[in-house]
User: Fold these one by one.
Assistant:
Number 1:
Amino acid sequence: MLRIEGVDRSFGDRKVLDDVTFSVERGRLTGFVGGNGAGKTTTMRIILGVLAADAGTVTLDGRPLTAADRVDFGYMPEERGLYPKMKVAEQIAYLGRLHGMERGAAMDRARDLLDRLGLTERADEPLENLSLGNQQRAQIAAALIHDPQVLVLDEPFSGLDPLAVDVVVGVLAEHAARGVPVLFSSHQLDVVERLCDDLVIIAGGRIAAAGGREELREAYGTTRFELTTAGDVGWVRELPGVDVVEFDGGYALFEADEATAQTVLAEAMRRAPVRAFTPVRPTLGEIFREVVADAVPEEAR
Amino acid sequence: MSVTAPAPARTDAASPVRPPRPSTARVALMVAEREIVTQVRTKSFIISTSILLGAVLLSILLGTLLGGRDTTTKVAVVGDAASVVQEVDGLEAVEADDVEAARRLVRDGEVTAAVVPDDAVLGYRLVALDEAPEGVVAALSVAPEVELLEPSGQSEGLRYLVAFGFGLVFLMSASGFGATIAQSTVQEKQSRIVEILLAAVPSRALLAGKILGNSALAFAQTAAIAAMAVLGIVLTGQDEVLTALGSPLVWFVGFFLIGFVLLAAMYAASAALVSRVEDVGSVLMPATMLTMIPYFGVIFFNDNTTVLTALSYVPFSAPVAMPMRLFLGEALWWEPLVALVLLVAACAVVIAIGAKIYERSLLRTGPRVKLGEVLREAS
């Protein structure tokens, strides 16, 4: 488990990270979400040791991280960095060799990764000849070449088409399944919602919420329910303690506490066959807006 | 969650066998290898090196041909005057029937001058077209014997040429490969690959590899130029020059190597201060000036013993000035050794400071990093 605890960091007088604390579990994809300038990149650079924290610790399985541990990390920086004029497979193999791989083994693995990421045909071209999306894939290969023990990826999905996102997610999930803690940042909330197991939301340099995806949705869920029956559900509006948000023939979206909702369900079953009755979970976007609104004081926005 | 790839069974670590971490020296070698391979593969490098080598060889060959070492001046002779020309080196007699015929030859440009019988003191006079033929006059004159109390080792022209050659080779190599190091440093910063590199290897290994790779290239190029110069000299049969130039040339290559490492460290450290390729020019100013000093210093003062002696000890100009003094035969045997020790010491100091600057500036992006700021962090 990768644990970030009480990390502070200021640039000049501006405090960009304030007591940042969260964990990245082994075997799980952890999404790191936050607005522009919320502190995602700074946090990631501190995890990688590229930037020093003013206070706080980063530990792996309870031990403070050393430079030697970090060598085994896979890192994809926010601003993509590879040699523009070097051939793709060659430079990925070069990075592998810097990590101690033999020349041949590094090249084999580079080609293997590029195959899996769909870059087989572009492997021997200079990076600058590739489209942005393909450069992005090459960048992911660069982060994975040395079989990293921890993966930290800053916006790995930006600029990828939906199919490429699926390919990349597949590769990342494979690493997670092998027990590698995977942390990735993104502002594409729908993507994060679809694929991450755990979620960390940062706002204004503070952790606004952290936990499992479902737990968060539950915790931040409002008491809304959806009811669909074969008959008309106009009667719901008459019930005390029920606030109907949307209504259309056999469909109603209403707010009520749990007990009232159950009486609504019982009543509905008595009147007509019930097709669906579900508590409505908020989307990540909704949670994000709510959490961020709470976390960032008025004057700061 | 949509997962397209099959998930293999979970283990505690991603891989049971980790490759051993390479040592700093091995990483430096890998970095050096990349620098060399990348550079050698570029068209501009191949073309510029070929042109440079060709130019060196050609200039020596042409210089000899045009210098006219074996050419003779044709002089028309009439009658008894032929005997005057016969024993003179550099003059070739062309028999003319009479004075008129000789004058015609001069007019036609067939000969530079004509020696015709005359009643004056010498018994002959010269006929020329529009000005006195000084070469012929000199050849026919009797010059007094000259005794030089302090003969110069080499002629004025050769002296200038050698100063120019050493200076030019050093300037071109140092500024060329210095710029390459600077470019490569800033490009790594600008493309942010430096973040990935530094996550894997120490910055010292990166700097060492960069200096090593580019120094090796610069050294190889300089050695090739020296070899080409020797080849040219041998081809034109100027063995005596080679004897005079041989040992200074070896010293030059040695001095060059260390002098280049010194400049390379400066170029890399300077370039690490900026984040964009466009800003390289201004930040390299001090390093560029220090590269130019030996070139202009030695050329301007190639006949001023005092200044040349001073320059031959200053680390930045020693690679050019000391071999120059050796060539002139002005340096005592221990002098190059002392200069070399000074150079090595300066090199060590500059590398130590340069490595600090490099390490501290590499991850700082945005506006140019202030030198004082970087160095102050040290305390």
Number 2:
Amino acid sequence: MNYENREIVLSLKNVRQYFSSGFGKRKIVVKAVHNVSFDVYKGEVFGLVGESGCGKTTTGRSIIKLYNITDGEIFFNGVRISAGIRSNVQRIKDARKAIKMKKAETKALIADIKTDSAAQSDNDIVNRDVEKVQEDLNKFIAEQEEIIQKERQEIREKKKDNKLNKKLMSKMAMIFQDPIDSLNPRMTVREIISEGMIIHGIKNKEYIDQKVKEALRLVGLVEEHATRYPHEFSGGQRQRIGIARALVINPDLIIADEPISALDVSIQAQVINLLNDLRKQFNLTILFIAHNLSVVKYFCDRIGVMYYGRLVEIASADELFAHPLHPYTKSLLSAVPLPDPEYEKTRKRLYYVPHLREYTEDKPKMVEVSPGHFVLGSKDEIQRYRDELAGKPVPPDPTLIEITE
Amino acid sequence: MMQETRQDRIEMPEDVILRVDNLTVSFRTPSGLVRAVRGISFDLKRNETLCIVGESGSGKSVTGRSIMGILAGNAIIDAGHIYYDGQDLLKLKEADFYKIRGSRIGMIFQDPLSSLNPIMKVGKQLTEALILKNKMTKAEAKKRAIELMHEVGIPEPEKRFNQYPFQFSGGMRQRIVIAIALSMEPEILICDEPTTALDVTIQAQILDLINKLKREKNLTVIFITHDLGVVANMADRVAVMYAGKIVEYGKTEEIFYDPKHPYTWALLESMPALKQKGQLRAIPGTPPNMLFPPKGDAFAPRNKYAMKIDFEKEPPFFKVTDTHYAATWLLHPNAPKIESPVKDLVRRVRGEKDEL
């Protein structure tokens, strides 16, 4: 697929989401999402995979502004909807610190000059030197103050952008994992589905009724279901209600957070087929968060693999499965169970042990190793990945351990 | 397979360790009797892994719990026998049952967090049974517990011994649960969806561990799951359950490469293969409500191959091979010959494997 000319719906730039608890010595900061950047193009399904606790759900929730992000920027339809100020605050702190240090330095320098002057008799030269140093300091302070002002201005702008833009956010909807917990048991299906429209200011009752009926039909339920309560439905039907609730506001982007993990095997395929049909019908863009790799492969155009809060690899679905490069992706792919006993009994599993390698000076970066295929790695690693893609013999990855049963 | 016995003790063949015979379990609920298990029979062969597959509500967990004698209070065992060591477990008094439960038949559950006591140190939970049942001293029990933790692959067992469950990750917790189950050295281990709450990579580790322990300790395993990929990895024999009945029973290869029941076909078809594009073949409809068990074949309303008789009369078990049975009228000599739609599935999966 050609991605060059396609419209970007969602764009994340160096997004960080930290959670902190406790104060002072006991303060713990959990870096749930750590420097994640990716773009989602119009009409595509972007999959996020990774083990539980790797931050994929947090990423989804940060995008729809259930959390305020710590740092980085999120753009939706070209407009900045969230921005974190941690880096600005950090830069202001750095500037203040620099001023303080420079002041102390200057003070020491002046004292030095003055003690030296005891030997010299020419007072004019001493005064000139002191003045020069003082001037240097003032110039430096002015520079730093300017930086601080600039950062402050940026923080103000970011805070303004962080305010909820209702009109824009109504173009984004979410489907949750648990179809039981995500529906209010005291609301009828009609109330559940229409809530989004009412919040966005639609008051015409007939219009709402008509939209609810339309949405129910779209997801394969019937109009009569509108007056019932969630407990009267099976798991698969409840998830359909969740999908109807997301669809009814005509979103551009749907964030689907493990929509099928809680469903029975025989129902999962129904819901995936439904999402696939709807996506084609409305040209929806979907951010699909899941841990079942065969479903992700089937449903997604591009896949991002997350590991401990970082994106380690982004590629098109076919490319990722044909040429996985990052050791974690390889171990993930080797763990997918396939319904074939003969294959299962001879399979090799790969374990990813990140501690076997240490990044000292060469910090890993996200690099495009082939068109549309990004991998996180240090310079040496990237070189190895490139060689691997070119089909050259490469030394085995030190962080991968092979286990044969 | 089916034979009517009314005794409390029977002679069992040497290689059969556990025999479930016509087990029928219902639950009393405010809305009526829920028929969870409706007459299932199978033989568990020594040192084999039997996988019970089915969706939620098909009665697979209830089967496991009946064998352990830990059914909920509102359960009624309507009929059937579970023979272990020649005696009927269902006829045993609680005073005798506790000698078998845990020490001869062990069980591990789905959610490792809720099967451990959150306010008790892991070491204490591990040694509890050893001290109470094996009459070990505390020091002996601790030594044994650390050995066990080492066996199930927990690094630094001496340090971990004094920690609480919340300090363990999901995979490590499940290892602790396995260690507790193995501490009494049971012959049979019942695993009730032990990896459903875990990630693929951790799941692979736990499955490897169970396979390794099974080999080393000559365990017989009943593995309850809904993931066919896991079944392919673990099972020697497979029982497919639907609506409280076993619909197909056979060796793993027979179930995966030559399934006969339309429900098994549908299950295998509805899984997206790694190479698949295009529409998934979903199973239409939902499982039946077991308050009102359907007449005839329970799967018939969702089955595109259903015949008239499927709605009227329950199909008996037809023998495919000596080890392979399926309850579907399609196997009746008078039934139309239907080409199995999953024949090309095997090829599909094979193709993938060459690519991966």
